[in-house]
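MODEL INPUT / OUTPUT PAIR
PAIR INDEX: 1
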Amino acid sequence: MRRALDRRPLRRCALGHALRSVILLAVVLFLGVVTARPSEILDVDIPNLSHEQHGVPGKAVHGEYEALDAFGNWYEVKYIADEKGFRTL
């Protein structure tokens, strides 16, 4: 006479494998998001001001902004900020 197989350990193994797969997928996705940081840091465009900034935060960034003053004059400033400080170009 054949014995009935106990399937509980098999289910636990399959559940453990599925759980490990989900955790591995979550770690891979998290690392992908962290390492694929966009170079565009800031992009603001409102009626009297626009500002764009690119680079790596905390390392070096460059950008430009335009602003409209009270007399209707537009001003544009291009800059870089890195280990040497903040400088206009």
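PAIR INDEX: 2
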Amino acid sequence: MRVCGPRCQRILWPAHRTLCGRDPTFFYLPGLTPVEADWLERVKDEPFSLSGKTFVEYVTALTPGLTWKDLVAIVSSDTTSSTLADAMRNTLLVHAFFHLDLMLRNSVGPSPLWHSFATLAVPTFVHCSRHLGSQLGADLWRVTNDVLRQVLVYAALPGAVADPALEMGLDECVRLEILAQARVVEAVARAQVAQAAKDVLVANSVAHLEVLKDKLAALRPTHEPLCGRDPDVFYLAPLSPADLEQLERTKGDTFPVTGDSFEHYIEKLFKVRPWPTFISLVTSTEPTSPSHATARNNLLAYSYLHLGAPILAQPGLPALPPWHLFGCLAADWIQRCTRPRPDTGVPDCPSRDANRVLNGLLRQELVRATIESAARGPDPAIDEFEARLWEVVACGRTLKELERAELGDEARTRLVKEFKEGVLDPRANALLERTMQDAQVQPI
């Protein structure tokens, strides 16, 4: 396998290592682990989505003469005695991984690589096996080899985001996924299968590409305001006309930080023409000085908090713009780091330095807010399971940036503890707790 460098090699290795050193013209799936075999035993009598039968009924009908015990032994093995036997093993494995993915998704969090691969590969398998007239023949796994290898690369990319050594951004991940799907289409065009099968597989890839473009579009609104700006200083997007209109309507409502109205909070900050002065700051795009930038960012964070908090308090998962959701996160960080501590009277971070000291941390929180926003509402751009994986990664990166921040050791230790315990952000704590619970039951 040729790669452009060590980083790409690391990205692709989880997908490639199972195939490394094997026949490059024949696709190969790894055997079930003991834990996976145990899980398959538990869900074998559940309905199998490709038929009206249970999983055990479906696969035993597919291989007459073999018992369930025989089938488990085959899919748990690493090799077989012949290419034909390898083909049968592959067919049973793709069904087994597919069934496990559907049965376990709600209970174990993000899918393991080969489970998600099987779900993505099922259209290729079904339509090409119809063309070839067999689900068990060796030809099936030779004809679809190139296509399935590209599908495997596509399936492996979301997991690369979780690799701390790669430090892959979500934007980069989605762009690589788009490239991988384009390579799937190219592989389908080369495959020696009927045009009808090719048409279905290309349509499936086009559907994936549309979803990926929606993801990219969901990430763009929060990335564009920072793009091209000083990477060492945080910057908040100015209020949009719609935000201004909403803020004008709700300025008399209670502000969560003070318990008074938002308008009264602004009046305490500015003695002369308070509301017009405030509006000029939060609609400006270019800060004229560091103090102006600090005041602008702080006011924007509180404005977005005021706009987002009432919606966030509603039950369920109502849609919430990413900057509004971010305001709820950022305002808490800014408050805790810049207000004087009761024991010393000195803040952990001077207000004038907050944009620089908290820059990396706020950028990760913005990513987390963008993900959560994209996963909300009636037509989410990111599905629940992928959002959960990305949010876990973003939480981990927030902690990493907090540990890097130019804060005193005591302040850093306290803020890390508060973040993990949920004092700083209860939703982050709930997410981390849920992740730890998953780690105790996840089979892989």
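PAIR 2 NOTE: Residues 216 and 240 are 21 Å apart (CA to CA).
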